[in-house]
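pls design
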């Protein structure tokens, strides 16, 4: 890959923010952005120190940034704080105490509103329950829950104690729980009987039970009653949330934690088979998510903000809970599917709660567009003032649809580029300060120094594409991969070790406006509906089936999901594929990883195209899957007839 990452898109439309928006925006013009950006790069310690003062610290830091042992950076060293305190207690002696912190809606239509005071009480109770179950500072707690308020309560309770939460997306399988529990030696699990999804119950507790048969480190399981389906409770290990919560005090002072105390682990896909446990710590992550929320979502305490992500992904961590509550805004949480019971569900909710800021993914926008313009047209979306997107590059048509049919041409759109690893948004436009450009993320946020470089670390001229790197540390950056400093160095820092640059894994270029256009991943990671999946993970899952001898997985362009998954499979012992094999293998992958990783297409083949040294040539398969004529070099291919046969079958 690399010297020639192609880009064909040339977009020249610019959309200036509406005057009414600019009038009340936190940052109103480009000059203010330029000045603050300049300062953040020239004097990062001065800048971040000043920003951090907006939050509560039990003890002020001695040093803003310690760069003595790269890539192990430390932020706000010597300072002590607590993110749960900053999300809750900090608001209790202000008018915000009785305003809504969380407005929640379940898929069946039930509603709950938790004020800051009420949320605080619940979080304190949960912290007391967790303490009774032996959870202490540093204990790893896995959370496998539907999108219910108890999920927010559980994570804030862990943070309050200083326990490290590891949230596992509710759509993952029992096997995914086992891997994550083992990797971090998890001691307690918080789950629910089930969650609602498209009218049926996702049996979460059953998946936990299956997983824990292989996880002896887990001593306690706390179970929220949500769907009231029958579940087995293991005596001594399993405890009902409502029973335990009723018996404890609603007071639990937030622990004074070191700024570098670990806050959470979140697993994400890489280019090898094993998910990476991204570790975030307390102080820097808190300052980063607080500040990005404040300026990029232009968040005010009177905003009703809705991010449609699941908390099982980083977007939900940073921009449903931590960054939003730290700003004292109201965050909306929704449990279910966007098309249940009808395709207007999201717009009905925007209308019902008078949502002001709305943040979603391009894949969702493409689905909305497909469902028809008349769907959002039925609702009053006049409360909206700002829209955002995240997760993958947004195609300009989808951007225009969002602008026209949801923003009604009156809302700026922020296209926010970031990663699980970065903790917070890195590249975007600031909504009141600069125009947006369809398909382009924008400019670096404060303190972020991006560059486009070649494989050899040469900076590419403006307009040329290459590897996107970040040339300086930033507060919300990952601290390591849990338990694996070596892999952390290797994956992100070894390529440009001399220069000390962070390798993002994305290809990008700067356009003539200086805006950063993200092209996509340059490694074996595919982006399905805005979620990162490693091709190797899916391959390992396929190969673990007795039917399969060998598998190669690639992404291909997909109208709604962005990328679909195509698997090329050779069957064991030269068996011929039967009619049921495709479905059997799709289900097998769902069981190993989760439904999200099910291949869209499985193509059986007698052999896979390989190099003479035996490496599968995925780049050639990518073209076959996309149905495009390959202009790629095939000279290293061992047997061209395999490729020709696959092409002919397309
Ligand atoms: C991609 C999600 C283009 C990118 C927050 C990145 C994007 C990966 C954008 C991280 C965007 C995310 N434009 N591409 N606005 N946002 N990506 O860890 O490839 O789930 O590296 O974090 O998603 O995915 P992750």
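designed seq:
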């Amino acid at each position: 890959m690399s010297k020639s990452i192609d880009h064909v898109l040339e977009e020249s439309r610019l959309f200036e923010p509406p005057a009414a928006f600019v009038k009340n925006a936190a940052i109103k013009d480009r000059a203010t952005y330029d000045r603050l950006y300049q300062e953040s790069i020239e004097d990062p310690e001065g800048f971040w120190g000043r920003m951090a003062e907006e939050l509560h610290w039990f003890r002020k830091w001695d040093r803003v940034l310690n760069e003595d042992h790269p890539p192990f950076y430390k932020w706000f060293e010597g300072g002590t704080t607590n993110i749960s305190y900053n999300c809750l207690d900090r608001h209790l002696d202000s008018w915000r105490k009785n305003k809504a912190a969380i407005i929640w809606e379940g898929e069946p239509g039930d509603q709950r509103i938790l004020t800051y005071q009420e949320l605080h009480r619940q979080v304190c109770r949960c912290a007391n329950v967790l303490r009774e179950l032996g959870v202490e500072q540093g204990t790893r707690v896995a959370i496998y829950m539907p999108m219910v308020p108890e999920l927010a309560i559980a994570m804030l309770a862990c943070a309050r104690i200083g326990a490290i939460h590891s949230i596992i997306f509710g759509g993952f399988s029992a096997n995914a729980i086992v891997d994550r529990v083992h990797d971090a030696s998890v001691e307690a699990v918080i789950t629910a009987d089930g969650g609602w999804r498209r009218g049926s119950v996702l049996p979460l507790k059953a998946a936990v039970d299956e997983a824990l048969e292989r996880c002896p480190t887990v001593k306690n399981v706390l179970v929220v009653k949500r769907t009231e389906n029958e579940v087995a409770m293991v005596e001594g290990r399993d405890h009902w949330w409502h029973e335990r919560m009723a018996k404890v005090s609603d007071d639990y002072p937030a622990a004074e934690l070191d700024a570098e105390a670990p806050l959470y682990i979140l697993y994400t896909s890489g280019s090898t088979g094993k998910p990476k446990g991204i570790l975030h710590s307390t102080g820097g992550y808190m300052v980063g998510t607080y500040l990005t929320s404040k300026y990029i979502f232009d968040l005010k305490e009177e905003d009703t903000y809705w991010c449609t992500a699941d908390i099982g992904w980083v977007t939900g961590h940073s921009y449903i809970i931590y960054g939003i509550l730290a700003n004292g805004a109201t965050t909306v949480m929704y449990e279910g599917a966007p098309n249940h019971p009808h395709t207007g569900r999201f717009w009905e909710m925007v209308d019902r709660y008078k949502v002001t800021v709305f943040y979603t993914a391009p894949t969702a926008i493409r689905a909305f567009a497909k469902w028809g313009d008349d769907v959002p047209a039925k609702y009053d979306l006049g409360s909206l003032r700002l829209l955002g997107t995240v997760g993958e590059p947004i195609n300009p048509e989808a951007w225009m649809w969002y602008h026209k049919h949801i923003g009604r041409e009156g809302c700026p759109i922020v296209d926010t580029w970031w990663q699980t690893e970065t903790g917070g948004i890195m590249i975007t436009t600031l909504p009141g300060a600069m125009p947006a450009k369809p398909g382009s993320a924008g400019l670096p946020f404060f303190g972020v120094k991006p560059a486009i470089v070649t494989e050899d670390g040469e900076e590419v001229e403006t307009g040329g594409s290459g590897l996107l790197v970040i040339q300086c540390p930033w507060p919300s950056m990952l601290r390591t991969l849990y338990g694996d400093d070596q892999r952390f160095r290797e994956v992100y820092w070894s390529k440009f070790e001399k220069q000390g640059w962070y390798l993002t894994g994305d290809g990008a270029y700067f356009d003539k406006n200086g805006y950063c256009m993200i092209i996509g991943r340059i490694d074996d990671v595919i982006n399905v509906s805005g979620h990162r999946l490693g091709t190797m993970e899916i391959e390992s899952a396929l190969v673990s089936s007795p039917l399969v001898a060998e598998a190669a997985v690639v992404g291909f362009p997909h109208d709604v999901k962005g990328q679909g998954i195509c698997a090329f499979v050779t069957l064991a012992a030269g068996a011929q594929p039967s009619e049921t094999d495709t479905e059997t293998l799709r289900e097998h992958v769902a069981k190993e990883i989760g439904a999200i990783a099910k291949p869209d297409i499985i193509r059986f083949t007698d052999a896979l195209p390989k190099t003479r040294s035996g490496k599968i040539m995925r780049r050639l398969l990518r073209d076959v899957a996309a149905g495009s004529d390959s202009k790629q070099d095939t000279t290293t291919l061992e047997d061209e007839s395999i490729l020709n046969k696959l092409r002919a079958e397309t």
